[in-house]
Amino acid sequence: MTGSDRVLERLTRLHPKKIDLSLGRMERLLARLGHPEQRLPAVVHIAGTNGKGSTVAYLRAIAEAAGLRVHAYTSPHLVRFAERIRLAGQLIDEDTLTALLEECERANGEAPITFFEVTTAAALLAFARTPADLVLLEVGLGGRLDATNVVTMPRLCVITPVDLDHREFLGETIAAIAAEKAGILKPDVPAVIGPQPADALAAICDRADDLDSPLIVAGADFTARPVEDGFLFTGAGLTDWHLPRPALAGPHQIANAASAVAAALLLDLPEAAIEAGIAGAEWPARLQRLTRGPLPAQLPEDGELWLDGGHNPHAARALAEALAEMTAKDGRPLALVTGLLSTKDAAGYFGAFAALRPPVVAVTIPGEDAARPAAEVADAATGAGLAAEAADNIEAAVARAAALAGPGARVMICGSLYLAGRVLAENG
């Protein structure tokens, strides 16, 4: 166990709940730390249900291609906590991370504070002390009461597509959830709004009207039309600007890339950097192909193993669309290895794959208290009309899925970022 792991373990004990949306505890700790949130470079604040991480990845690649030094804060991590914090382009090193966490722990004392709040404070402290040109700040949950919403004057806000997720914290309807996401909007701060359901867009617009926040809305102020080798972007005075195919796989990535392009134009980043960033972005566990390691070795030589961390019905529909497109091109038989948290809509997730009808091998996500048992995951898949069975572990599930699919199998491991993290760790 590293020094940072020991501090992180202690920090989990400071609040009885993993999630308790509020800004008061965060504001108290930041005051004790000398208000690092007030000493940041220009901030792009990013909320939404799906596509936040991909949009951050595109924006980071664009800004770095333009020669900017970029801080980034994302969550959750997949394998190591340090993945959440990038300082001027580099993952935070162990010694710096440990020292920051210990400083925040001392400043907080024994006062109640959630794990995400205190670690967000550590990230803001790191960003304030390390020279950079831009901070990409991803919301953890919601927006209005998220720990990142202590930044009062970002340079720009982005809201990616909103869908039903985390209803126990954010509300039971799309409109209610969108209103929480729109809590990051600030007076006179422009905001790029990705493609939204009508109810979500109405809620976001209502909040923007109250604050006099200028919106740049997908479908109205900018559009993206896919073509064979990329997409055509129209907006900000540009018409059918031919951009390369997004580096991240899947048809849905065109919408994420287009929102990043709209944001980059508002940041006055050069067109050449935008083109390079769209083509060069990297983000693991988003339609990622695994080609080496013990898990791909479970497949025959002509098989393929893929990984995706999407975990709600909207993400499942995007994944199903991407898989349908891949199958139409090469005809490979498909099987899923799926693990889900108990807080997720299992029926809605599997319903997205009804037309593809892949066999499903269910697993319990290792090491997660909120993991849905494999048998329960299999029952949910069966309820959605899919043939399903449970496996004891990930490696066995991959081997069984390949056997069920048959020669040339494409096996997709999916359903949770927490499962994706375990897969990447087990696969080395």
UniProtKB/TrEMBL annotation:
> What residues does the Mur ligase central domain cover?
46-186
The EC number of this protein is 6.3.2.12, 6.3.2.17
User: Which PROSITE patterns does the entry mention?
Assistant: FOLYLPOLYGLU_SYNT_2
Per UniProt, what is one GO molecular function of this protein?
tetrahydrofolylpolyglutamate synthase activity
* Any one of the GO BP annotations: folic acid biosynthetic process
Q: Give the similarity note.
A: Belongs to the folylpolyglutamate synthase family.
Record function comment? Functions in two distinct reactions of the de novo folate biosynthetic pathway. Catalyzes the addition of a glutamate residue to dihydropteroate (7,8-dihydropteroate or H2Pte) to form dihydrofolate (7,8-dihydrofolate monoglutamate or H2Pte-Glu). Also catalyzes successive additions of L-glutamate to tetrahydrofolate or 10-formyltetrahydrofolate or 5,10-methylenetetrahydrofolate, leading to folylpolyglutamate derivatives.
* Protein name (database record): Dihydrofolate synthase/folylpolyglutamate synthase
